Amino acid sequence: MMCAGGRAAFLAAGVIAVTLSVAGATQAGAWNKARGESQVIVKLEVMRASEGFDPDGVRLPLPAERRDDIASVLGEHGLSDRLTLIVRTDYQRGEDAFVRYEGLGTSEIGLQWQVWRDDRWALALSTSLGRAGEGRGAGYAPPGVGETEREVRLLAGRSFGHGSGRLDGWLDGAFAEVQVARRWRSEQEDETRLDVTVGLRPHPRWLLLSQVYAGEVAGGGPAWANTEISAVREIGSWSFQLGYRTALAGREVPAQTGPVIGIWRRF
């Protein structure tokens, strides 16, 4: 059983996730913050898996349900119009057939450089350094494994607006973005990641997001491809996100599904 103090700590993190998170969903990560502009995104993820993917990618029952609850906080601050400071941390609790855990996940700090930006396109390059905690640094690894992480990420985005001549209302404020990253982990093999996001706007205050998160561990290790569909409602400088994540395919990873709740806030 989880101790009372542990429950209180996770509940506090969850309350933060439901009261702080951030706005600015009209643009994806490739668009840096302007100088002095800040954004905070807090999310609560409740993931469950009764099946997993074997080394051949076949979906099979797990010996026991896998449970992972994660409350994360991500902050961005524009140091200049071309340089953004990024910090992130999360608090986790979970269990599977072999282990039960609770504590901080990986805490990261990084910088993102706006390589190119015009009225439609944006290109950015980011780098970050992370330190692992008691939680899972990677979804396929046991809790607490690894000490440090380094990542380099390339982000490219395309925004849409009036004058497109096609689906004009939906494309006003819409965007598409691709991110490619390489992550080096101590005590674990390196990872290559691919994240794709498409956002459509059926109404000035509503944004629909379709996202795919994929990755593979070097040397033919674990691999994953997850999709997330969500709706974002904007109210002033706040945005409220409700979504659902589903495992599409994988190798040596649990087939997790579950809701994602986010609150975004611009400053």
- What is the average per-residue confidence, as pLDDT, rounded to a whole number? 87
Rg, rounded, reads 19 Å
Distance between the termini: 40 Å
Question: Which bin fits the share of residues in helices?
Answer: under 10%
Roughly what fraction of the amino acids lie in strands?
Answer: over 45%
Structural class designation: mainly beta
* Stretches with pLDDT under 50, minimum 5 residues: 1-27
- Widest sheet: strand ordering: 1-2-3-5-6-7-8-9-10-11-12-14
Number of helices: 2
- Total strand count, please? 14
The SSE string, one letter per element, is HEEEEEEEHEEEEEEE
The 3D shape can be described as globular
Q: Main beta sheet, described? A: 12 strands, antiparallel, barrel
